[in-house]
Amino acid sequence: MLAGIAALLALNSCFRGPPEPLGRPWDKIQLEVKDKTLEVEVASDNASRQLGLMNRKELPKNHGMLFLYSAPSRQGFWMKSTFIDLSIAFLSDDGKILEIRDMKAHDETRTQSNNFVRYALEVNRGWFQEHGIVVGDSFKDFQTKIGKFVVR
Q1: What is the pLDDT at residue 67?
Q2: Would you give the distance in Å from CA 63 to the centre of its chain?
Q3: Is CATH 3.30.300.30 what the domain over 25-146 is classified as, yes or no?
Q4: E strand intervals along the chain
Q5: pLDDT in tens, 34-92
Q6: H/E element holding 145?
Q7: Mean pLDDT of all residues in the chain?
Q8: Most Cβ neighbours (<10 Å): which of 35, 51, 125, 141?
């Protein structure tokens, strides 16, 4: 009887396939700064970073996109094919906001960080200002929340 149960369990595991990997591009996580929570999609590979928020007509309130890069550099963004005015924050490795910039829909001018960073966060334009979030504020448990992502 035990051998039969073991065989059924083994057979069942064959049909389920491998477990879903953690930290895939487009997965969503929650980030917290001060007393505010953002639901963000993660762009952690070339395809998701290149597409970003392009072609979207709206971004829900308290939502955004977090861009992850494998090495620090002066990151640059533009708004070609982006229909939403956005604010972008460039973040240190520990989730501290180093810079905040506003970007206008369809503007092809490059917005580039002054600092070498691996993380950038886009939200609806004015979100940071509306919530009193400024340069120097930090996202809580930032590395823990992004630690499951493999950056490609």
Answers
A1: 97
A2: 10
A3: no
A4: 28-33, 36-43, 63-73, 76-77, 86-91, 97-103, 111-112, 117-124
A5: 999 999 999 999 999 999 999 999 999 999 999 999 999 999 999 999 999 999 999 99
A6: helix 142-146
A7: 89
A8: 125
